Amino acid sequence: MTTRVSLVIPTHDRRAMLQRNLRALARQSYPLSQIDVVIVADGCTDGTEHVVLEPPLSGRVAVQAHAGAAVARNTGAALATGDLLLFLDDDVEAWPELVEAHVRAHASISTDALIVGYLQARPENTTSLFRIALGGWFETTFERMRQPGHRFTYADVLTGNCSVPRRFFQALSGFQAQLRCHEDYELGLRVLAAGGAIGFAPAAGGWHDDVSDVERSLKRKRDEGTADVWIARAHNHVWTVLPLAKPAGSRRSRLLRDFALNRPLLGGLFDVVARSCEGLLAQARLRNHWRSVRDDLLFYWYWRGVADALKNTSFDCFREEVTSALPPPPDLPSVDLQHGLAAAMRELDDLDAPGVVLHYRGLYVGTIAPQPWAEPLCGRHLGRLLSTTLRAPLADAVATALGLGTTGPAETETARVLASVTPRAS
User: Fold this and answer.
1) Which of 61, 186, 306, 333 is the Cys-Cys partner for 225 at CB 3.0 to 4.6 Å?
2) For the segment 134-168, what is each residue's pLDDT rounded down to a tens digit?
3) Which residues are CB-neighbours of 389 under 8 A, at least 6 positions away?
4) pLDDT at 301 over 70
């Protein structure tokens, strides 16, 4: 039986881009008779509400006052008729197999899942340092998800190209309407809490024509700060991995955070000067200096968003409010790696524990702490951790246990033992 798919596309004043991308959807390899398209014109002023879905596409255009992408997606989902909801941003030109690959990915998983598709920046001769950096961030994100043994977290959810069963989406009550940013991350937290899976389908791809610039990026950072305050209060278990919880390491970072939270006049002065410098440095192609100023601006505006959300509450009071309700860390079981990776993977699966302490012949290697914001820890995650983050401490433990040094024949023996516990590089 063929799965019926509803494509939900929120859009705001991008009529020409939307129409081009609709033409790409008409070339899908999946049966178009099993696809309906729901476009949600979110406060559009460019005539998007008059866009016509021409055959072979079918569906409708819904109109709403400008309320943001989360509300627009909920509106589209409520009008959808398909068994599978596929959310696609208006700046994504779908590859011919995008829909088919999403359907195939869900069919391969035995549980409810949210599947993220691939977004590739369109090849272009851009000279914008900002666009180049943004494209690099996306590629790094997707490359991480491609790796065998990757442990998916809430932060892997990107709603520009993702799919979820409509029944499951309804059970989750959709996106949080009050969030103007990170509504995708917040949905990911609830997917995991409900026992659902998060996955990645590289073949479900499309060209991504992101038109963000520095100005849009700073606004988004402000929205991210505001959203993270809401998320911390609603899901306090995620506190430790939010930017909110990270100490401002340098003196400059501490000053910028203080400007944002407590000294708006000084913060405004910094913003004016930094924006001017950012533009000049970009024109001069001084990449390292430009990146430093850009990062300072993004950091400052994130904390301006935090200040917006806290209003008259001090950050220290907010932090105490969130962290005081956190449960104490649990006692974790131990797994010894001396019998090899396969044995350790089986033992970890049998334990079904939130985290684990790793040893090699009784010598401490490292701790995989509980991560309630990630998919449950299981054996398939172990090889990647041992071959990356924990590779050096594992090698040290092996060398110590066998009474070896770090050079000459001892190094060869250490590498041989290490290879018996960690997977070969692909």
Assistant:
1) 306
2) 677 778 889 999 999 999 999 999 999 999 999 99
3) 366
4) yes
> Taking Cα atoms as reference points, which of 143, 144, 151 lies closest to residue 369?
151
> Helix, strand, or coil here: 347?
helix
With helix as H, strand as E and coil as C, how does 102-147 read?
HHHHHHCCCCCEEEEEEEEECCCCCCCHHHHHHHHHHHHHHHHHHC
Mean per-residue pLDDT for 364-372?
95
Tens of pLDDT, residue by residue over 105-118, are: 999 998 999 999 99
β-bridge partners, 38: 8, 60
Higher pLDDT, residue 130 or 310: 310
Please report, for residues 223, 258, 374, the alpha-carbon distance to residue 254 in angstroms, rounded to integers and kept in the order given: 20, 6, 30
Helix (H, G, I), strand (E, B) or coil at 64: strand
Domains and CATH numbers, the chain: 5-211 (3.90.550.10), 216-323 (no CATH), 334-419 (no CATH)
Amino acid letter, 203: A
DSSP string, 262-289: H-HHHHHHHHHHHHHHHHHHHHTT-HHH
Count H helices, E strands: the chain?
Answer: 15, 11
